[in-house]
Design brief:
46% of the residues lie in helices and 14% in strands. An 8-stranded mixed beta sheet has the order 1-2-4-3-5-6-7-8, sandwiched between helices. The protein has helices at 2-24, 61-64, 69-72, 99-112, 125-136, 156-163, 166-172, 174-188, 193-206, 212-215, 235-244, 260-263, 265-278, 280-293, 329-334; strands at residues 32-35, 38-45, 50-54, 77-81, 118-123, 141-147, 222-227, 248-253. Helix 1 (2-24) packs parallel to helix 8 and helix 6 (156-163) runs antiparallel to helix 9 (193-206).
């Protein structure tokens, strides 16, 4: 019991640190947009090529991506929507909760904010939404990154059923219960999350699985990410997903569980930035094709919304984003 309470306190302290980092970049003016019958709340950061970030179940984007928003908003225009039933996007899970509704919500959201093509990053539940959207509308994506997701039923369904039990959470994770209230009570009503958790778990248990035929439709460059100790996603599942994608890559974070972005933020940020750099030419071509398909004529020049991450932007010495810059000749010599 003492060890469990100690772990709960550590989790609470970690969450407070992440929320604090997110608030530094989070505006108090909360935009919403009408899409698919919802008023979808979202945060925006930065300027540049568009990147949509989709959070995990029961969480929020400003928490899941707290370690990414300050860095990537230097080079990209980030859109961070809140899923139905989460945060400020009001929806009562007593009326149902289905994966295909989340995909419809994403499709309506990007149309409403005027994105023809965009980069897409999803975590856990958001990763399944992103993957399903990529199957449905691959031409809209410049790149795709999915973190902590498997296309197989187990162990994902069993872990979700166990963790998303409100009574278990009350007994074993009081710090998480308090955090769920802070995240969702204001926008959804007090204790609405108690209906949300089992509704999500029930959907995970029955949602149709993506097979090789569907995954072959995912044309954009795709980065598959998992932790080597993720209880939801065994490494061989992530490897199998990568193999079935036409242009897949795999990054496995060592000594890491499910929340790769927050537990290994430096490694994840470096992997994601490297992925964006390595796929910049393909992403620009896909952006140009998307503009033409939508009837818009790209501006004259060698590229459309060139990816600043591919151009090695200048960074302040000593920051955690030094890896964004091209390595110096001296550092290259040291690694030989």
């Amino acid at each position: 019991m003492v060890a469990r309470d100690r772990r709960a306190r550590r989790r609470a302290r970690r969450d407070r640190r992440l929320r604090g980092r997110g608030r530094e970049e989070h505006s108090t003016d909360v935009p919403t947009i009408a899409a698919n019958g919802l008023d979808i709340a979202y945060d925006v950061h930065g300027a540049g090529p568009p990147l949509v970030l989709l959070h995990g179940a029961t969480s929020l984007g400003r928490s899941d991506f707290a370690a990414q928003i300050p860095l990537f908003s230097r080079a990209l225009h980030l859109y961070v929507p809140e899923a139905r039933g989460h945060g400020r996007t009001r929806w009562d899970a007593a009326n149902g909760f289905r994966y295909d509704w989340l995909v419809d919500d994403l499709a309506a959201f990007v149309d409403a904010v005027g994105l023809d093509t965009f980069h897409l990053v999803g975590f856990s539940m958001g990763a399944m939404t992103a993957l399903q959207y990529a199957v449905r509308s691959p031409e809209r994506l410049r790149t795709l990154t999915v973190v902590g997701i498997t296309t197989q039923r187990e162990p994902r369904a069993s872990v979700a059923r166990r963790l998303m039990d409100p009574e278990r959470a009350d007994r074993e994770e009081p710090a998480w219960v308090a955090e769920l209230g802070r995240r969702h009570d204001e926008g959804q009503g007090v204790d609405a999350w108690r209906r949300l958790l089992p509704a999500i778990a029930a959907d995970v248990a029955v949602q149709p699985l993506l097979g090789p035929r569907e995954l072959r439709r995912v044309e954009p460059p795709t980065l598959v990410v998992c932790g080597d100790r993720d209880p939801f996603v065994p490494v061989d599942h992530a490897w199998g997903l990568k193999r079935q994608l036409p242009d897949g890559r795999l990054f496995v974070a060592p000594d890491c569980g499910h929340e790769v972005m927050s537990r290994k933020p430096s490694l994840f940020n470096e992997a994601l930035a490297g992925f964006f750099r390595s796929t910049a030419v393909v992403a620009e071509k896909r952006a140009a094709a998307g503009h033409l398909d939508s009837g818009r004529v790209p501006a004259a020049g060698p590229s459309v919304e060139a990816n600043p991450l591919a151009e090695a932007p200048a960074v302040d010495p000593g920051t955690d984003s030094e890896w964004l810059a091209e390595p110096s000749p001296a550092s290259q010599e040291e690694t030989r």
